[in-house]
Amino acid sequence: MRKGGWLILIRVCVALPVTALLALLILAASLPPLDLHAAQARSVVVLDRSGDLLRPFATQDGRWRLPVSAATVDPRYLAMLRAYEDRRFDSHIGIDPLAVLRAASQGLRHGRIVSGGSTLSMQVARLVEPRARRSASAKLRQALRAVSLERQLGKGGVLDLYLALAPFGGSLEGVRAASLAYFGREPARLTPAQAALLVALPQSPETRRPDRFPERARAARNRVIDIALSRGLLRDDEAAQARAEPVPAARRPFPMLAAHAAEEAVGAEPANPVIRLSLDGRLQASLEALAAERAASAGPVLSTAIVVIDNRDGRLLAQVGSAGYLDSSRRGAIDMTRAVRSPGSALKPFVYAMAFEAGLAHPETLIEDRPSRFSASYAPENFDMTFQGTVTARRALQLSLNVPAVALMEAVGPARFVAHLRAAGADLRLPRDAAPGLPVALGGLGLTLTDLARLYAGLARDGQMPPPAGGKRIAGDVAAWYVTDILRGTPPPDNALPNRIAYKTGTSFGYRDAWAVGYDRRVTVAVWAGRADGAPVPGLVGRIVSAPILFDAFARHGGDPVFGPRPADALTAANAALPPPLRRLNRDEPPDGTPVLRIAYPPDGARVDLGLAAPAGGAGEGMILKASGGVPPLTWMIDGQPVSRTIRRQSAWVPEGAGFVRISVLDATGASDSVAVRIE
To answer: Per-residue b/e over 602-620, b at no fewer than 16 CB within 10 Å?
Structure first.
């Protein structure tokens, strides 16, 4: 052939592919943009404060498709992926003409398909717009869509879609879900063998699943390793080591840290695909293991819950809702950090704090711990059924004595105590909406572990409640320091160091709940143990069961405990140096054992709705007045003016209007009691 003929032939050979390429570009540009809404749907993931995965949730159709991008994947995996699937990914326009020509020539030479010409972009197009039948027209449409996708998303967007959508067998989609399921790790750091397996699986995800066909998976992985070696991505020793690494024999469960908190967060923000909590993932994992371990050693049906609060900002660092979310024998799906239970003696520090705040007592005030009757039917006893005699308030709280706590509650007023804790943000539940009584001091109400922890965090913050109840106080700084100083001296459990943390335990009536709460300046840790169904457990005592968990949890948090300085107004003195009114708590109990006169209704600090504040301004209803104890006849007075005298312990009074009033009662011996209420 003459020289001119060769030139014509070369021009034709060049012109045909160029013409075909231009035609593809024109056709791709004419297609409407792909609807990527379904392809961009991801599994909801809940992260810890550092962005580490706590728990993922499957998509609505049961797929595990976790958020992922090229920036969060091991660079060696990406290099192997390009070498194996699409060497010219970074330079082509969505289709690779050289790969297509190579695949066509190999097919003509061997009479069958030897290698495909699909690019990563074409594979993404197939994943985004799947076709039931594989045909030449379907392949052409993939090519057109690949070009369109690259124009629409760019190289980075196409690669991210592949990383999220590539199939890895079963319900696994995307390299992140596969890495967690097969290796139990994020894809940011992979061994060469792991990276090679993840490159190989999407080509035939069901027949190469390592949990079902390990030998096929190994062979496919090794082919990727060989290509990576030939392209200079691995050294000889690295390739040999990668071939020797075993393939995973089974799928691993996805992370399920803070399962209860994650479910709650997803329920609160169902439309949010990525939810970040304040929890510390490492601490959460450590405390979940601790809870499971201690519950297993304590009994077959017991559960344990742990809450850790960062005292600086009030955020939760750990929230262990049970001894095992999937442990049905312990009813692990129930979040015991939010279950309302009786706190036992765990509320006593707040009784003392209010007494200190009101100037009724001091840590060195002497209090009688002896058989005492506070009403006709209420005579509390100590846990060990013994009495200590005369003790200081400090010693009474450290030993968790019941009679001194009830005596202080009597002085403080149970209604005022409950109102004070509620004002600080605690959701207290009284039995059958009964009026607060003296048993509240010993746990005669219900609250959650989280609320109890926040109350103690208030003590750790010099009496200032942490957010979200910021601005509210549980105690003044002096009273909070008194209580903290006392609780630091509480004898620790066996094998624990003293004076490390300020802590208190509690055991509810009938051995149903065991509590331990401790704090320093940095964190507050609260522990609950018991049965989720509320059944009694003989021997379930806070000091024995929960206190060791508390001290272990503090050790796992790490660091040396820190406490604030003594307030300038704090009075540190022996009993003899105290002002006379603070040296001893006097109850004014009648010497003959007659029950002390008390107003039973209305309770101190109550708001009584008698219809006086209604817009119509009616006459209102009468108010029932009830008393307990004392020696009749009883004289009732309103704001110092007598309104009735009766031998019964019940009377009635019709107020003239709404407002605050002081109700008093006086018995035949001269004993009296009074309360302040608001009439509405």
So the answer is: bbbbbebebebeeeeeeeb
Element housing 417 (H / E): helix 414-423
**pLDDT given for residue 378 in this prediction:** 86
CB atoms within 10 A of CB 576: 7
Positions marked active-site:
85, 345
The answer to whether the beta carbons of residues 83 and 106 sit under 8 Å apart is no
| Contact predicate 515/537, CB 8 Å | no
Pairwise CA distance, residues 180 & 636, whole Å: 74
316-320: strand order across its sheet: 316-320, 303-310, 523-530, 513-519, 502-507
Sequence-separated (6 or more) residues with CB below 8 Å from residue 135: none
User: Residue 621: phi, psi to the nearest 5?
Assistant: -105, 165
Mean pLDDT of the chain: 89
CA angle 315, 316, 321 (to 5 degrees): 155
The type of residue at 86 is D
Residue with the bigger pLDDT between 144 and 315: it is 315
34: tokens are 């792909």
Q: What is the pLDDT of residues 429-477, one digit of tens each?
A: 998 767 888 999 999 999 999 999 999 999 999 999 999 887 899 999 9
Tokens of 164: 């999220």
Please tell me the distance from the alpha carbon of residue 40 to that of residue 35, in angstroms, as a whole number: 10
Burial degree of 136 (CB within 10 A; 0-12, 13-18, 19+)? exposed
d(Cα 374, Cα 386) in Å, to the nearest integer? 18
Name the residue type at position 216.
Answer: R
Torsion sign (Cα): 544, 545, 547, 552 = positive
Q: Beta-carbon neighbour count of residue 326 at 10 Å? A: 11
Tens of pLDDT, residues 341-398: 999 999 999 999 999 998 999 999 999 999 988 876 788 999 888 999 999 999 999 9
Using the predicted structure, report yes or no on whether residue 279 has a pLDDT greater than 60: yes
d(CA 257, CA 54): 5
